[in-house]
């Protein structure tokens, strides 16, 4: 298949590219390198060294004998996006070209606006380009399970759900409640995609995951193929920050009570799921919602897991401490079990990597780059506060 | 009170200014004159002649002996907005500074993007400026009843509502389903305001109305005080288009079956309600949802009403015809009765103007400007199609 990846230089974009190439797909990509710039804006860098795109493309050719078409540019530029789609004629466009950090979106008004405008503009441009150039092109969009908040009901894997309100039964859009401007931009994206589906019959997969962890997939067979790995307070997920703290012998800092639950997935399983969704598109005109998470854990459980792995792999106990939560989020134990039916139907179920093992792999990878991480010591503790 | 009006040059902004001044409030306003430019972009103009802002301010001073502080500028410019709020120190900011036309938002990708970015940026800037400068300043935001779509349940006048979903009871955000990019931008605005309220305790009134009609309020005591009156396919509401067609002896063109229901309110009643909400702000930190509509009518009923008024006032029957609906909207009779409790509690209930009378007033005003309307003959029939 012909796959166009918006945001090909990112953590998922790059890892997915390697998998698709190895499976014989033709891949093209666009990136404006915004994540590289914005990570450096907050004084940070990828903990694992990543090559510039020109080098990445060379290594891919050397290692896998495959060419990836790359265009440096911004998908908020409609003409550019349209031109690339027109030329490459993809079967599917995978949309990762969004500002993906919740803390980044909460820094101040400029960052809130950038997140909202960049994410909504890229999505609007994409649906209009597809409407113009070929309504049969499948859009696979990265969302987040964070769109739903923490409702009391089981979250359906569908755009709509039956509800009884004020005594009347109705079919409503699945309710959402986001916890940052970043998450709200994703909620708005979902509505924009759903409306485009109803209006123009576009074929869409709205894919929702929780945090993704991992420094490896089975395609990442050399350090030169590394995908980025962020560990700072703004761009790093909770598990990556814990790992970095373990490396520099800093107690693992849990935001608040640590009872917050999240549904985690390894990079390997994420790439496998994305590939399955690409190779098994929805029916023409279908709006397919897909949930994907492998292990539901509280932050306390995560910290304990990293602490134990540190003792085993690094030979010491970094300790664990609780700090005031810079975010505004529920800290009590909440039900959290979104429906998952689509991926099992495609034969994707079970864990191929379990977190216990993967945490050790990551610690070993990171330990080799202890110097890089030591230099980032100052950017791991939270600097952005939700209440301003 | 000190009232800052964002979008003071618009249909509601201007009419509200006159009322507030007459009630002794101090008024300042910002406008970028975008509506004037965008109306001319689609080949149209206000059917009733309106003065440039400098003249408007002069007339206000002559007629009412009051000064209005005016700043020409764009509230998507954060520094400008902040500076004006800092200097004027309003008790309340009334936010009309949004692209307000559904067809305009559906023209193409540029207009979709402009609508989304302008409306969300202005709202984000406003909440951040208020958070910075004084969280006690009341934000009164113009929304639309169109945010809700046409649900089967009675629409609660609240941000949240109890619902049973998948067998579980939960309190969810009132579900919404919008019918254009413009309407979606308003939905997103509502969520942004609600999140700002929860996060920072901002004091907000989210005010939802249906279409507003009328060429007069009791403050519009001379033609020099006219507020704009749009009749074209993009900027004119259905009632205004019918009136213009009656004036030029064109059959009134109903989109589709004409069973679509809308909740209308006169300009006079709108200005009265807005003034009551300004003079009676919510409690500090409260998020107050307010619904306002006076008469629920189908398009067919509206057309019949204009037809009868035309016979009486103009002496002829323009006739009525149905044309294919350029919009995508339900055309069957739907339940449509959003809750209204806040305004009655403030002593605002009952109609001060009824549509039958007001339609005649409008026809008389418009008949004096038949030549202007005749020149706009070419821009009344729909040119924008939702399906593209």
Structure commentary:
Two copies of one chain form a homodimer. With 388 residues, chain A is an alpha/beta fold. In chain A, 40% of the residues lie in helices and 18% in strands. Chain A has helices at residues 11-22, 34-41, 53-64, 78-88, 102-105, 109-133, 181-200, 238-247, 267-279, 299-314, 342-345, 355-367, 370-375; strands at residues 2-6, 26-31, 69-72, 92-95, 138-142, 160-165, 168-173, 204-209, 212-213, 252-255, 261-266, 287-292, 295-298, 320-323. In chain A, the strands form four sheets. The first copy, chain A, has a seven-stranded parallel β-sheet, sandwiched between helices. The first copy, chain A, has a three-stranded mixed β-sheet with strand order 9-11-13. In chain A, a hairpin with a 2-residue loop joins β6 and β7. The longest helix of chain A has 25 residues, at 109-133. The radius of gyration of chain A is 20 Å and the shape is globular. The interface between A and B is large, with 50 and 50 residues. β6 (160-165) of chain A pairs antiparallel with β6 (160-165) of chain B, so a sheet runs across the interface.
With helices defined by DSSP (H or I, 4 residues minimum), what is the helix count of chain A? Answer: 13
Which sheet architecture does the biggest sheet of chain A show?
Answer: 7 strands, parallel
Order of helices and strands of chain A: EHEHHEHEHHEEEHEEHEEHEEHEHHH
Overall radius of gyration of chain A = 20 Å
Q: Roughly what is the average pLDDT of chain A, rounded to an integer? A: 96
Give the assembly state of these chains.
homodimer
- Arrangement of strands in the largest sheet of chain A: 3-2-1-4-5-8-12
Largest two-chain interface? A-B, 50 and 50 residues
How far apart the termini of chain A lie comes to 46 Å
Low confidence ranges of chain A: none
Q: How much helical structure, as a percent, in the residues of chain A?
A: 25-40%
Helix/strand-derived category of chain A reads alpha/beta
Q: What is the overall silhouette of chain A?
A: globular
Say how many strands of chain A there are: 14
- What is the percentage of strand-forming residues of chain A? 15-25%
